[in-house]
Amino acid sequence: MTSPKYINSELSNQFQNAVKMSTSPSASFMPGGSPSQFAGSPPSSYFPAAASRRASMKTPAPKLLKPFATEDIKILLLENVNQAAVEMLQSQGYQVEFHKTSLNEDELIEKIRDVHAIGIRSKTKLTARVMAEARNLVVIGCFCIGVNQVDLEWAAKHGIAVFNSPFSNSRSVAELVIGEIIALARQFTDRSNELHQGIWNKVSAGCWEIRGKTLGIVGYGHIGAQLSVLAESMGMSVVYYDVLPIMSLGMAKQVNTLDELCREADFVTLHVPALPETENMISAPQLAAMKNGSYLINCSRGTVVDIPALIDAMKTGKLAGASLDVYPNEPAKNGPYFDTALNAWFEPLSKLKNLILTPHIGGSTEEAQSAIGVEVGQALIKYINEGSTIGAVNFPEVSLRSLTLEDENHVRVLYVHSNVPGVLRTVNEIFAEHNIDKQFSESRGDIAYLMADISGVNAEDIRELYDKLERTPFKILTRLLY
Ligand SMILES: NC(=O)C1=CN([C@@H]2O[C@H](COP(=O)(O)OP(=O)(O)OC[C@H]3O[C@@H](n4cnc5c(N)ncnc54)[C@H](O)[C@@H]3O)[C@@H](O)[C@H]2O)C=CC1
Ligand SMILES: O=C(O)C(=O)COP(=O)(O)O
């Protein structure tokens, strides 16, 4: 990491000056944080002992160490993340800036510059270009399942941990799909639209029960497996295709190829992540392999279905219906128009019969959103306050017991580094003069992460530890909590 991250407001005059030059939080900040000592471009990456004591003096109990002045931490929350998360983060004393929508790239670059943490959902694209502008960012919270919107590798290589909520909205998606299967089989969105226009159209031709039909699930993960159980309970047979061999639930049967699944299923539903391998996974050849008069449902990602090919299959009657919740270019905020300039296929699509179009609402239920808010909010707090990376999607997972105020002469070292030979020897030489209470290290690909609790250190020792770790050639990010 070229630009270090956190301020030391006590131990260095240079840093103190930076702190004095800093501005108060802008008017758009949510209430809850106290006036900030936040430096525009903080020159150091460690947390101040005196500031932490200041913070803990303000809140004497409980005895969980606030290892820095929590009110210095800035968090940007986009895309209307749930209020449960907003309140949790505010209650830590962090400065929380909240926006209902995602931001375009220029706005995002402007906003991300000084924040330590950002919370997003599926719309906000955190590209290398955007993240490179973030001077203090140490953690990203994706308040959703998908993490394809973040350049995970770049983030890891620059010491930025990414967390998500791997299954808090799975049930909501599975229930939506069950609703869509019945809606498509009975053409009920068409009947409803007709009656809204005063047209009574009582028909049974082309309308079916779902009992006894076959559901083909592509991607038998959290959502696919949950859906499998629900579908069987309603009398459907289930086949699934996955790149991994996965134990089936109930009577579901794994098939060997996508082609086989397409040939067997009456309903094909997609539950794979956005990956290069899943791009246009359902295109003309797969649609051709599907049964005549079958149905397609996509609640995964817009990249997975080739929409022009789907339009053709609907127009020829090959498909009797389809349901889309996700699209290649989704708008940043709610509003009257879908951007037809970006999505030339939108107009022909919108005119098709028995085609359900929903605005990416698969995970949008009260239950899912509050559970996600709590889960990701907690992960952010654990990482910021304690360095725990349990549940991170791009980082080695490491945790040590919670910090306490038992020993004031204690420091927790968080050291993200390149996974190369010789690091532990070097680091342990740096630690050698002190008492290491606990140390844990884990690697993931090119990145490794070491946490160590060291006791019997004074402010000077801490400063020295920090400087020495910062000078190591394999360092990506050093944070000290005390
Ligand atoms: N519409 C919405 O609001 C929501 C959409 N999603 C999307 O649904 C996706 C799936 O979610 P989960 O079930 O939680 O994910 P998961 O990670 O639990 O399961 C995905 C499954 O897909 C399989 N897979 C990966 N590549 C594959 C390939 N090329 N062919 C066949 N199988 C493949 C994996 O092995 C895994 O079993 C998410 O990645 C997200 O993009 C998730 C939540 C809400
Ligand atoms: O959880 C996911 O991956 C989703 O697609 C839901 O995204 P959202 O939180 O609605 O932007």
Explain what this protein looks like in three dimensions.
It is a single chain. With 482 residues, the protein is an alpha/beta fold. The protein has 3 domains: 74-167 and 367-385, Rossmann fold, CATH 3.40.50; 171-357, NAD(P)-binding Rossmann-like Domain (Rossmann fold), CATH 3.40.50; 396-481, Alpha-Beta Plaits, CATH 3.30.70.260. 32% of the residues lie in helices and 17% in strands. It is built from 16 helices and 16 strands. The chain has helices at 13-21, 49-58, 83-91, 105-112, 128-131, 152-157, 170-186, 188-196, 222-233, 258-264, 284-289, 307-315, 346-350, 366-386, 423-431, 459-471, and strands at 74-77, 95-98, 117-120, 139-142, 161-163, 214-218, 237-241, 253-254, 267-270, 294-298, 319-324, 355-357, 410-418, 435-444, 447-455, 475-481. The protein has a 7-stranded parallel beta sheet, sandwiched between helices. A 5-stranded parallel beta sheet has the order 2-1-3-4-5. Helix 13 links the parallel strand 11 and strand 12. Helix 3 (83-91) runs parallel beside helix 14 (366-386) and helix 7 packs across helix 9. The protein is elongated and about 80 Å long. It starts with 12 loop residues before the first helix and ends with a strand. The model is unreliable at 1-67 (pLDDT under 50). The structure holds 1,4-dihydronicotinamide adenine dinucleotide and 2-oxo-3-(phosphonooxy)propanoic acid. Residues 145-146, 169-170, 173, 218-224, 241-244, 271-275, 277-278, 299-301, 325-326, 360, 362-363 line the site of 1,4-dihydronicotinamide adenine dinucleotide.
